[in-house]
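Re: your question from the hallway

Yes, I did run it. Sequences:
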Amino acid sequence: MITTPLTKNVHEDRRVVLVEDYEANGGYQGARKSITQMTPSECLQVIKDSNLRGRGGAGFPTGMKWSFVPMDNVSPGHKYLVCNADEMEPGTFKDRLLMECDPHQLIEGMICGSYTIQADIAYIFLRGEYVKAAETLSQAIKECYAKGYLGRSIMGTNYSLDLYLHTSAGRYICGEETALINSLEGKRANPRAKPPFPQVSGLWGRPTIVNNVETLCNISHILDHGPEWFQELGIGEDAGTKMYGVSGNVQNPGCWELPIGTTIREILEVHAGGMLPGYSFRGLLPGGGSTDFLVEEHLDLAMDYGTIGKAGSRMGTGTMIILDDKTCPVGMVKNLIDFFAHESCGFCTPCRDGLPQTAHILQDMSSGKGESRDIENLERLVKFIGSIGNTHCALAPGAMEPLQSAMKYFPEDFERHAKGKKCNYCETD
Amino acid sequence: MNNSVNSLSTEELSAIDEELEHAPYRSAVAIDALKIVQSHRGWVSDSSIKEIANYLEMSSEELDSIATFYNLIFRRPVGENVILFCDSVSCWIRGCAKLEKHINKTLGITRGQTTEDDKFTLVPVPCLGACDKAPVMMVGDSLHENLTEESINRILEDAAVKGKER
Ligand SMILES: Cc1cc2nc3c(=O)[nH]c(=O)nc-3n(C[C@H](O)[C@H](O)[C@H](O)COP(=O)(O)O)c2cc1C
Ligand code: SF4
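Structure:
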């Protein structure tokens, strides 16, 4: 049986998989099976039974999300499936690989997902900088129309679907699903209030599902091979495989498809080859820039949603960023807060004004102008900005996660900087 | 709408029209239209804003509020090559701050500035999603990975000779 469904077609040199090769290796079987032999509700049940959870960061069960889309007695009009290909979470580089190397896998997943929720229009919302992915996807979409996988009467059935590629014009906040919908509508990417949830009222007020690239890449395989097969791919409580990545001062930074629930230690030491000579491990952000630090004591934990959650962090995107002993945690957090302050959409005050305040304190601290009250002030800001409900979306609370946990695990570094000391590793002038 | 009242080129108009084909209303393609015009003119001027807004039946103010929100829409002239320099966390850990200073020195520009010969504009960009190859930057449409001062020198020299990358 296939154990690495997502990367089974990926070549070492990362050249794109052509449609003929994709088909020859089982491609479009999942779509054919679901569209020609299964009802939408049967497809939904399979996805629910598979226990697939969203790979965009929050880990929301995909089948449950889809089940909120109204199916019967829907007012006349479109339904939409949108692929979130905005990958901009600092330290995250998994969706790029999936789209550049195997664009048909994503499109097939989108065809299956659209059929399941009976969407008639699908969009890929791709970040503007992913020029190569834009090329591979456009080419693959053209091939699909030519082969009758997209357009009118797909595979001879009465199901029709149009798929469009939208390339974005920047801004991290576009990845938040309601901001993404506003951006697709041609507006500023400010998040929307929820409820109503997009499943009921999304793009142009119509039922809309937004899913991450990696989530959608799983769909055709699950429909083709069944939920039990998918469940067995995972090691612990979660199902399937996961694209895990490691960046930082390690021997072999990269991205690998592994059983979900692989331990942090195995990912870091076996796949990433451990630390570079001269560097030792101090901590890691397990799943991108807006997840809490974990440290040495957590290395043997399984990288799954529940385990990492219980340890006080989040699996997030599953791409870890390693903190070493020659990088200052205060400087690292400053870099992250600068990013979040810059990327705030400006809609609500705690984020728009609070993040620059936080960044200012960290700037002073890392450049040797720290004061004793800095730590207390940071704690106050963390509490205020980090509380869910104080802000309009999850960007600002997410920004506080690396800060609050860095203060918890690396207090000596914050204290040193709060005494007005410079450090060897914070390079600022 | 009478196309002759504005000076968008036929090419630009037909690309915008293609987007309009599957849009529920005209202003829905605002971002696509801004990108189309920028790809032809390098940046989006005040008069381009007026022309696009006119064509999409929206106010210039509304369109400008959209144009200024997105960091890949340039509302000021830029050089032949825009350097999108990643300064996010993985690149920072791998020493991008030093490399940015090297670019500052080599080209004589800091963030947001354009060289006097109009060859380069330097702007920071959020994580480029190539963190295993950090530090990275884009010059025009090309991604450059595992940067060092030497490789940056080479990349900039090549780009200066080649002109606009497309
Ligand atoms: C500030 C912010 C940025 C986000 N960026 C992304 C992103 O780039 N890609 C993504 O898939 N999800 C991103 N998300 C999560 C999405 O809002 C949404 O949860 C996700 O696309 C759902 O897909 P999934 O259920 O398949 O995980 C972001 C969330 C927030 C709050
Ligand atoms: S938390 Fe920040 S990004 Fe989110 S809505 Fe408020 S200002 Fe915008």
